[in-house]
Design brief:
Length: 122
């Protein structure tokens, strides 16, 4: 089974072919936004694909239209709810936009992250 690695945390999930990057991340506890619930209605699950882009499912017009609303779109940008894993391993970076959305959706996780960061600065 292919593996999906999520940066910057380095969390890796082994998933069946055809699994969306979003589902792989949520199943592994990755901090990734998904304000619309993964139905291609927002850009909050935006990721940058660092490795394995060619093995992902093809982008459709709807995904491209939604990506137009995202911040810092790059040639390797994908909506993780639409990108399905193929046969190869994939490495993605969760965008700052997606992480911000995750924290907006989970304020208790934002608090934990802030406390951890403050503890590391002492």
């Amino acid at each position: 089974m292919p593996k999906v690695t999520f940066l910057p945390d380095g969390i890796t999930a082994e998933v069946p072919k055809g699994t969306s990057i979003l589902d792989a991340g949520l199943g592994a506890g990755v901090r990734i936004g998904n304000a619309c619930g993964g139905v291609c209605a927002c850009s909050t699950c935006h990721v940058w694909v660092r490795e394995g882009f060619a093995s992902l499912s093809e982008q459709e017009d709807r995904e491209l239209d939604i990506l137009d609303k995202a911040f810092e779109v790059k040639p390797t940008s994908r909506l993780s709810c639409q990108a399905e894993v193929g046969d190869a391993n994939v490495v993605v970076e969760v965008t700052p936009e997606s992480l911000q959305t995750f924290y907006d959706e989970h304020p208790e996780e934002r608090r934990k992250a802030q406390e951890a960061a403050a503890g590391g600065n002492r």
